[in-house]
């Protein structure tokens, strides 16, 4: 039996064992799964009896440079400028700490030191992995992934990912990979609408689920490759805009972190690992109640003025809303989407008595006040652009392309970062603002920095990310009381770096009830309820005319952080009273929704689906149940209610639904489920069960 040098990292329920290969100078995975899984022959060992498949081909390597391994993909492609690519390194020592591991490899010829870094995250089943690259000489790095993870599969690997486009983000999508490569990426300077930087992998006939998520709000890729030895190898990392980055002698390049998660309980269990991780990212801010907001965008569009906004604010306060957010259209030159961006001063014509007076009037309704801003954007008509045309991405003297009639500021420049910080400080100091919605509606197209001599030495993607994170970090430090909502034309920039610095994110501009259900269903696989901003808007929606009741829209939005975006001025007294009742019920259970354990019940393809939330002390269970209106399921059986089976309850306990006056045994709820009698007028319910 071969003996290896091995190291084991342990999380609450999982272990991850890395060993030094006996066959080649690399680290490889020995075992990853439930605690103790490392005791026994590695499931990733191959028989070594196959001609032509060498150990190098089949090794479950943790990180491979191009040149060391014959066939499948490498994580690191490095060369001296103008010379051949390739790294041949030697193991140079391990450092183990409390929940940490660092494995170093050096290439004496290139003068490159590569350190594979591991860190467990307390109270979660997440291990963070990243790589640090230090050069003694100038090097060109064409690829510098964060990490690779190996998952043994018996046949095909079942890949689950979240794909879509604007207004259809987070559609849960699956494929079986038995040969070849599956790759997702964004070159849009933001994670993008097409794919979330998140992937789940399962052996296609097994339950256990492995997941990765890349903490990088810029260009990225995640690539899964079927390996000859019967494993799938997932590589993930940045994709530099310039095609390569320059490693300056003596400098260390630190890659983004790749969060690696495991659950024995399938995708549902895996989602809870991610939820817990995101609660960890929120830290103490998790326990700050997320206020019920009203956002005026869908009601007034660009037609913003004090009188109209106050009318909405009054109606919102009357039904129990706690926070009023003025979206796009409040600043000078913003009559439509062709102007204004960059000149962040309230429009005096819209707020004739002054913006401070307007904010005071909103506050006098006992509402907090919030504001939308798109700090990286600039309109060609703006004063900012006239003063600083060089602040915008552009290739040389060529005209810059307009997207949504706007340009993008080069946030990698410190003067641009300082302008954005100065703008936010000014607004947050001048007015009583406690909520900021940070939008970004225009990904970079051409990305040049005019006046740069060696453009190939720039790293514009990392520059923009660094600027963005610097401003968000400043907001946290200088304005800790301000709640920050992250948005990018809907869900275009949602990743763990953003989530660590914001309180909520906006998953999609699509708020139509059934469309939203499917977006939220995908979103909750990767992200926690406490970050999922969701509004009740008017039906039929802008995008999806399928009618749903007001109750459905409330229960759907309550699955995360409830907001209202409907035109309340047009609502009847009856609708307003119903809304007030829903908001009051939500306030009673929101702590459980945001801080408890969530389970996805069924899918939007089923006739009934929902989310179950269990309070941390397990005394209360909240079930948000939604009828999709499909008539091919159980509701067709006349008189027999549809049912949602709950999970994770104590079979021996009794649970009481006080509102309905029903008591269930735990085993009944687990075996049969909660009954729902749907009709055209009754398509959603919120059930609160108290353990007796
Ligand atoms: C983006 C956002 C919307 C809204 C508009 C305003 O599309 O996603 O919520 O703020 O911009 O222009």
Automatic annotation (TrEMBL):
Residues of the Glycosyl hydrolase family 36 N-terminal domain: 98-247
Record keywords: Glycosidase, Hydrolase
EC numbers: 3.2.1.22
Entry similarity comment: Belongs to the glycosyl hydrolase.
Binding residues annotated for substrate, in chain numbering: 166, 327-328, 404, 437-441, 487, 509
GO terms assigned for molecular function: alpha-galactosidase activity
Catalytic activity from the UniProt record: Hydrolysis of terminal, non-reducing alpha-D-galactose residues in alpha-D-galactosides, including galactose oligosaccharides, galactomannans and galactolipids
Descriptive protein name: Alpha-galactosidase
Catalytic residues identified in the record: 439 (nucleophile), 509 (proton donor)
Residue ranges of domain Glycosyl hydrolase family 36 C-terminal in the record: 640-689
GO BP of this protein: carbohydrate catabolic process
Protein origin, superkingdom: Bacteria
Uppermost EC category: hydrolase
Pfam families: Glyco_hydro_36C, Glyco_hydro_36N, Melibiase
